[in-house]
């Protein structure tokens, strides 16, 4: 799933390509992805793109007085095209979900791999009306996201596990499964640790969050959309690296699996050498 650093890189890339350009049309190929009907997607035709921004993991293309908002979910992505594509012939079939065509034929395709479809698109006059955006917590890279702000979030979470607190978009916007793993590894903190922690622990976690996200944003800056997934994977230290050696201590990176997701961690760096309980694995070994 694209998280804050990748979506920010998409914003930078698309802003340079789209700002000031005129939309010829927006084709919705998979009708299930469009979550609004008024204003219609056809109302964007002939309009000028005035900017590109993000809200957490949501991408926001500003078109006149309207906003084309997208959430790429787990398997969605954008593919830039230099020329007018052939018409889509199998509506609703395959990975193509939507298509934006500029007045010179260039533009991008919105695709989603796999059979579980979660990608969503809205055309709205106010992005705050989009479900999910209206519930977002503060952005961790905003100047006003201070350690005091973070302390208030942790205090409200109480004994909740810190991994889930970092991932909850209503707490902090933009951090997902991958970067929460990375942040906790840098902070040398167990994913199961309660959000209620000492001042020193909170400071260490806050610094780890800032460093991890800002370094990821810097690495992704200027990377073409087609290369962002590869760049993200190469930059991760523990997430998605089960069985490999920890780059810090050399211990074997382990995994905890849930029904529809998993996370990775280093026992030596994060849990005092003790493997965390993996309920799915435990059931398989019985």
TrEMBL record:
<keyword id="KW-0378">Hydrolase</keyword>
<keyword id="KW-0479">Metal-binding</keyword>
<keyword id="KW-0238">DNA-binding</keyword>
<dbReference type="GO" id="GO:0003684">
    <property type="term" value="F:damaged DNA binding"/>
</dbReference>
<keyword id="KW-0511">Multifunctional enzyme</keyword>
<feature type="domain" description="Formamidopyrimidine-DNA glycosylase catalytic">
    <location>
        <begin position="2"/>
        <end position="109"/>
    </location>
</feature>
<dbReference type="GO" id="GO:0016829">
    <property type="term" value="F:lyase activity"/>
</dbReference>
<dbReference type="Pfam" id="PF01149">
    <property type="entry name" value="Fapy_DNA_glyco"/>
</dbReference>
<keyword id="KW-0234">DNA repair</keyword>
<dbReference type="GO" id="GO:0006284">
    <property type="term" value="P:base-excision repair"/>
</dbReference>
<keyword id="KW-0456">Lyase</keyword>
<keyword id="KW-0540">Nuclease</keyword>
<dbReference type="InterPro" id="IPR015886">
    <property type="entry name" value="H2TH_FPG"/>
</dbReference>
<dbReference type="InterPro" id="IPR000214">
    <property type="entry name" value="Znf_DNA_glyclase/AP_lyase"/>
</dbReference>
<dbReference type="InterPro" id="IPR035937">
    <property type="entry name" value="FPG_N"/>
</dbReference>
<dbReference type="InterPro" id="IPR012319">
    <property type="entry name" value="FPG_cat"/>
</dbReference>
<dbReference type="GO" id="GO:0034039">
    <property type="term" value="F:8-oxo-7,8-dihydroguanine DNA N-glycosylase activity"/>
</dbReference>
<dbReference type="GO" id="GO:0003906">
    <property type="term" value="F:DNA-(apurinic or apyrimidinic site) endonuclease activity"/>
</dbReference>
<comment type="similarity">
    <text>Belongs to the FPG family.</text>
</comment>
<keyword id="KW-0227">DNA damage</keyword>
<dbReference type="InterPro" id="IPR010979">
    <property type="entry name" value="Ribosomal_uS13-like_H2TH"/>
</dbReference>
<keyword id="KW-0326">Glycosidase</keyword>
<keyword id="KW-0863">Zinc-finger</keyword>
<feature type="domain" description="FPG-type">
    <location>
        <begin position="237"/>
        <end position="271"/>
    </location>
</feature>
<keyword id="KW-0862">Zinc</keyword>
<keyword id="KW-0255">Endonuclease</keyword>
<dbReference type="GO" id="GO:0008270">
    <property type="term" value="F:zinc ion binding"/>
</dbReference>
<dbReference type="Pfam" id="PF06831">
    <property type="entry name" value="H2TH"/>
</dbReference>
<protein>
    <submittedName>
        <fullName>Endonuclease VIII</fullName>
    </submittedName>
</protein>
């Amino acid at each position: 799933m694209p998280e804050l650093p990748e979506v920010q890189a998409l914003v930078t890339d698309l802003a340079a390509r789209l700002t000031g350009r005129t939309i010829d049309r927006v084709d919705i190929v998979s009708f299930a992805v469009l979550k609004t009907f008024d204003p219609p997607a056809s109302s964007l035709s002939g309009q000028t793109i005035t900017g590109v921004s993000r809200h957490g993991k949501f991408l926001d293309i500003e078109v006149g007085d309207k906003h084309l908002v997208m959430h790429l979910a787990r398997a969605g992505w954008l593919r830039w095209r230099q020329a007018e594509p052939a018409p889509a012939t199998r509506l609703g079939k395959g990975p193509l979900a939507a298509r934006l065509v500029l007045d010179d034929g260039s533009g991008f395709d919105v695709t989603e791999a796999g059979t579980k479809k979660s990608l969503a698109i809205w055309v709205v006059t106010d992005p705050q009306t989009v479900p999910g955006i209206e519930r977002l917590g503060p952005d961790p890279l905003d100047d006003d996201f201070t350690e005091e702000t973070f302390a208030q979030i942790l205090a409200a979470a109480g004994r909740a596990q810190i991994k889930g607190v970092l991932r909850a978009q209503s707490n902090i916007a933009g951090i997902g499964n991958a970067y929460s793993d990375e942040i906790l590894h840098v902070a040398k903190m167990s994913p199961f640790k309660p959000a209620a922690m000492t001042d020193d622990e909170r400071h260490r976690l806050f610094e780890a969050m800032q460093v991890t996200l800002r370094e990821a944003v810097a690495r992704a800056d200027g990377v073409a959309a087609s290369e962002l997934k590869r760049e993200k994977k190469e930059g991760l230290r523990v997430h998605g690296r089960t069985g490999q050696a920890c780059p810090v201590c050399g211990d074997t990176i382990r995994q905890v699996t849930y029904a529809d997701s998993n996370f990775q961690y280093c026992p030596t760096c994060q849990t005092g050498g003790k493997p965390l309980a993996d309920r799915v694995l435990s059931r398989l070994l019985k």
